[in-house]
Amino acid sequence: MEWFKKAKEGLARQEKKEIPDGLWSKCTACGEIIYTKQLEANCWICPNCRFHFRIASQKYINMILDDGALEECDANLESLDPLKFKDSKKYPDRIKAAQAKSGLKDAVVAGLGSINGIKISFAIMDFNFVGGSMGSVVGEKIARAIERSLEHNIPLIIVSCSGGARMQEGILSLMQLAKTSALLAILHQKQIPYISVLTNPTTAGVMASYASLGDVIIAEPQALLGFAGPRVIQQTIGQELPPGFQSSEFFLEKGFLDKIVDRSQLRDTLTLLLKYFQR
Amino acid sequence: MQDKLCLEFERPILELEKKISDMRDFAAGSNIQLSEEISSLQSKVNKMREEIFSSLTRWQKVQLARHPRRPHTLDYIELMTTDFIEIHGDRYFADDKALVGGFAKLEGRPVLIVGQQKGRDTKQKLLRNFGMMHPEGYRKALRLFKLAEKFNKPIVILIDTPGAYPGIGAEERGQAEAIARNLREMAVLTVPIVIVIIGEGASGGALGIGIGDKIFMLEYSWYSVISPEGCSAILWRDAAQAPQAAEALKLTADDLMDLQIVDKIVKEPPGGAHNDYKSMATSVKNEIVSALDELQTLPQDQLLQNRLMKFRRMGVFRIAED
User: Fold this and answer.
1) Which stretches in chain B have pLDDT values below 50?
2) Which of A222, A271, B22, B54 has CA atoms 20 to 30 A from the CA of A51?
């Protein structure tokens, strides 16, 4: 059970887990000090405890796609502020700050690429942008990624990383679950493969829509997954959650995942699956 | 009226109504003529109700949607339909009593009717889990939808839930998967689906049985990506800011009409649905029947294409020039 404890510790402290630009990085799960170049060569996986550091979407693209090349589509879609939403910050200001911080227009990057020569429609979420939350832009870009699969008759791969629907766009965010899932029904009917990859964390609205609808669902080790957040569940039931609850390993055990794959093995695993699914 | 059975802003109306009914009782038991006083008080109470209800805040509407005396799914089934036969269980795990469903006749027309049930007293509330479904509830709903499809019966769905249940068992049994699967499957069910939000429409818990061809909202219902309390706890780090969160979330029937998410608002009786179950149920029934009339004339491929496009176009964004 020692191993579960590590996972939990890593998950609990995820907020501080920005990757430092320095020469040395400290693993947030086991505390190991790692030479950053070595970490990078190791797909940002701790060589000591296999903890997967959270990485920017571009790093992922470099690792998975042939030549790290994505022919990006719909890059210029941007959020509006249909609700005139304001909490401690106005929503447009929050978007601007997130854009400046991440260098992205919103929380998903999508386009066309290939994996070992197999052409795919690809989308990847980025937690750096308002917690990877799904508003109209994310929903629309995922919808268009599904439509590109349909149009070109090529497999779809979505790498998810999200705390759920974006509250600041209210009901419009909720309806992105419906929009993306409805299009996946068509993809399903056309028998086009869809592989869903879950990274830490994938929860709530994203998990309750396209992330759960893959023909095959793969997760990184020790990722936090699920519908409700652990804090909400803890408050509801008024007791401590069991160790390892809602981790990738937990959901594999419960039958909701097909496989847990180390990031370093992901490209090979995807290739194999894509080949099996070719007609 | 017991305190807990009425809302703060309803109190002045109820007090005045009590006065009127006392005067009626008094007049009935004596020879004193009070009809003039009574009718003047009656018009006063009507005016007061109109004033209060014409300027309700979003938070007050949320409270009306949760009113302890608000009609629930089984009330509507009883008042709108005949020959209801309930169907139970998801055939995998259990019968989720937070969701009721079965076949019934709506003005003689056979339909499948399904909805979340909240429960009125403590015992019933616990039995119904306050209208919060587990994965087996979503799977039960899907099983019923597939039955309706198999026997070519239209589907009527009444939504009234504070959310899908967040618990250990719910996660273990795949709450997210159950909801996601419903979203995908409902999008391509080959029979017409009419949805009415009768009370609370909280997030994925509501949407998990909420894909259809027509979506109606009662005047004092709400539908949102998150409950005001949940939003307030996350964004304001304090659940007490729920009234403010309700304003920000734009979750009322009027808001959702403006955002082009729902097709129609069903007006409630003066003072809200709980004041007149019968007329409320009649209005809901009439809307459902006329929607079904319209949908049942459509060829199946048109029905499905329309449903897909209905959700496909939802979302507000811009395409930047640079």
Assistant:
1) none
2) A271
